[in-house]
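Narrative summary of target 7.
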Amino acid sequence: MSTNKSYRILVVDDEPDVTELLKYKLEQEGYICEVLNDPLAFVGVARDFQPHLMILDIMMPELNGLQLCRIARSDPLMKEIPIIFLTARGEAEDRVKGLETGADDYVSKPFNTKELLLRVGKILNRGTKQSQAPVQSRIQIGGVLIDEELHQLTVDEEPVVLTATEFRLLKLLMERKGRVQSRENLLVNVWNYDTDIETRTVDTHVRRVREKLGRYSHLIETVRGVGYRAVDIS
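Modeled conformation, tokenized:
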């Protein structure tokens, strides 16, 4: 058993069999797990439990996972909590829609519990590795300032909310200004994946970051057929 007792995970799925299985597997790994079969109770439970990560099923009655994700991303107490979607939908467009909503990752049903646990571990361990590494605290390009210590982005001195993944992506690009970052390289350095995964994940997050940069969206330049780089802006 691994020692992950400091990490709390909230699982929301309307199928009791799924939540029972995930609770057993996650607790077996040492995580503290809370499960919820009623999505209508999501906000209250999430605020009280204060999870480090949430696993949300997409296809649920009354409130689906996409709606819960939007609620989380608009709530000051939950906006930066990583989210993994569980979905029976396998089509690329559905996965992209989930990522555009603000999720960090997705796993299609029927899922392999070992794969899901691996992804959970990688997302949670990202913060640990980054906190141990020396960081450049403040990086500014034009009117865009990213502050690692405060975990804050400001655009023309106005704060802009980023998800944890969006923050890592933008910070990496700004740290390596002028250097082209391939999609595969971004997947390894931002998502910590060392295996093949759909590169549209990167494109979706870049599009979201650009939207939040507003008039500075051109800070992130597309290098056709390769990836992206941050450039000087005025």
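Confidence is low (pLDDT under 50) at residues 128-135.
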